[in-house]
């Protein structure tokens, strides 16, 4: 089929599913058809494009797309149309991928359920009374419901892996610095990383090869050669020698949903049957990831979000009498509750007198978590744990209790604090037929290992 045909079919499917799912904040129909025509023309002219040529993709709405609104699901950026293209979308377009729409998310990527979006609540395709996870919930539900083949998300504390787990798809957060963040709206700059969703490990490996790589426009982007991520996609581990997989001791047992625990143990048995050696590894500071994250991330967010003042971009409340009241009114009415909560926590943690007690302490804990991982990877190649202690919860269930919402990220956050790559792959269902995710973590820049283990398991 031609790219135009695939695009038309996809757009029709989206039309029929969106009234229930609300995965997208905007459908970029015109742009998609134009891009598809271009791909067909390039192919007709004999050009070998890439495996992504003509493939429909969704883009999280915190990734800037030239000429197309990029709202971060916030009122404060309601009419923001970026004058430039992010590096990741440019790379995908050059590879012939077709952008179908901008995906819904938690406002400024702050949340675990997609419910803090100022515009709409996205449903989980497995049970529409439940959340898709967050913050990249729209990107995950779109792939799960076949509204697109691959989608981009961002992951600061689990925002790709958690929704991948809740929606039963593959989600990878690469090593910090592997993928350019030029054009990604900043949340917590020492943690943010762009990654992607797909239905198969192979699709994820192919797509990561396209978006990874050094970018002079992003000073945190690493200058390295990108390996061939599809080279090790083979059915079991034996031909490549023994793979050692460590179960993170602190993640099993208490607090874990019964069915999540069962599915995880079954997945470990399966990995062993494929030829992996299984060990139990202790990461004693793993559980301090969550509290240290909720100092570091809001602190960085409070600084990053200072730029939304009604002057340079986005929404401005016109009712202010002077500059200061214009700022206050714009920010009061432009940001939602969760974003304001983070700004207040972050501003408090960074203020004089509190900095040492909170921010500095959190950074020290972060170092201890990094050391736990360093030590673990002297003993095993890959670490494994459930992606989330629970499966998808009901919409509205955790809204009144931010702490219980924060707890869903217990297993994913330490990975961001250490800058490591992590992948979530489907590993079964609970008694309500809701998907469960298996998280695999590797040392920095060993995405090839993650793909190898994930592919053999899948
Ligand atoms: N749920 C976490 C938060 O609210 C993680 C979000 C993310 O990774 N962007 O901060």
TrEMBL record:
Residues 5-450 form the Amidase domain. Keywords: ATP-binding, Ligase, Nucleotide-binding, Protein biosynthesis, Transferase. GO terms for molecular function: ATP binding; glutaminyl-tRNA synthase (glutamine-hydrolyzing) activity; transferase activity. GO terms for cellular component: glutamyl-tRNA(Gln) amidotransferase complex. Transmembrane segments: none annotated. GO terms for biological process: translation. It catalyses: L-glutamyl-tRNA(Gln) + L-glutamine + ATP + H2O = L-glutaminyl-tRNA(Gln) + L-glutamate + ADP + phosphate + H(+). It is an enzyme of class 6 (ligase). The active site is at residues 60, 135, 159. It comes from the Bacteria. The keyword Protein biosynthesis applies. Its EC number is 6.3.5.7. NCBIfam families: gatA. Allows the formation of correctly charged Gln-tRNA(Gln) through the transamidation of misacylated Glu-tRNA(Gln) in organisms which lack glutaminyl-tRNA synthetase. The reaction takes place in the presence of glutamine and ATP through an activated gamma-phospho-Glu-tRNA(Gln). Belongs to the amidase family. GatA subfamily. Heterotrimer of A, B and C subunits. This is Glutamyl-tRNA(Gln) amidotransferase subunit A.
């Amino acid at each position: 089929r031609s790219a135009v045909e695939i695009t038309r079919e996809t757009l029709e499917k989206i039309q029929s599913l969106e009234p229930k799912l609300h995965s997208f904040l905007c459908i970029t129909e015109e742009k998609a058809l134009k891009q598809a025509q271009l791909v067909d023309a390039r192919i007709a002219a004999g050009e070998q494009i890439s495996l992504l040529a003509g493939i429909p993709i969704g883009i999280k709405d915190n990734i800037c797309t030239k000429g197309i609104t990029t709202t971060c699901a916030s009122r404060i950026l309601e009419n923001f149309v970026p004058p430039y293209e992010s590096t990741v979308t440019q790379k995908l377009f050059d590879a012939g991928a077709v952008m179908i729409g901008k995906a819904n998310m938690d406002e400024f990527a702050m949340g675990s359920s997609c419910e803090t979006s100022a515009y709409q609540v996205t449903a989980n395709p497995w049970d529409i009374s439940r959340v898709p996870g967050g913050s990249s919930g729209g990107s995950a539900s779109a792939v799960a419901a076949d509204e697109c083949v691959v989608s981009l998300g961002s992951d600061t504390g689990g925002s790709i892996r958690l929704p991948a787990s809740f929606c039963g798809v593959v989600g990878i957060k690469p090593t910090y610095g592997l993928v350019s963040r030029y054009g990604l709206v900043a949340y917590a700059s020492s943690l943010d990383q762009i990654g992607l969703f797909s239905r198969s490990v192979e699709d994820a490996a192919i797509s990561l090869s396209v978006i990874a790589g050094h970018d002079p426009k992003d000073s945190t982007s690493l200058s390295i050669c990108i390996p061939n991520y599809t080279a090790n996609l083979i059915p079991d581990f034996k031909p490549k020698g023994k793979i050692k997989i460590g179960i993170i001791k602190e993640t099993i047992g208490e607090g874990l949903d019964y069915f999540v625990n069962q599915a995880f143990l079954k997945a470990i048995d399966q990995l062993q049957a494929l030829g992996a050696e299984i060990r139990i590894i202790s990461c004693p500071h793993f559980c301090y990831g969550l509290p240290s994250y909720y100092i570091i991330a809001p602190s960085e967010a409070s600084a990053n979000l200072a730029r939304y003042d009604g002057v340079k971009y986005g929404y401005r409340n016109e009712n202010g009498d002077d500059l200061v009241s214009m700022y206050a009114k714009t920010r009061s009415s432009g940001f939602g509750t969760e974003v304001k909560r983070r700004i207040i926590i972050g501003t408090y943690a960074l203020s004089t007198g509190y900095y040492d007690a909170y921010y500095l302490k959190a950074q020290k804990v972060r170092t201890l978590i990094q050391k736990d991982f360093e030590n673990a990877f002297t003993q095993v190649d890959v670490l494994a744990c459930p992606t989330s202690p629970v499966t998808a919860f009901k919409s509205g269930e955790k809204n009144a209790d931010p702490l219980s919402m924060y707890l869903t990220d217990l297993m994913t956050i330490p990975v961001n604090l250490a800058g490591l790559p992590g992948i979530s792959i489907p590993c079964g269902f609970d008694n309500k037929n809701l998907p469960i995710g298996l998280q695999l973590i590797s040392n920095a820049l060993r995405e090839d290992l993650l793909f190898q283990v994930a592919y053999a398991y899948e």
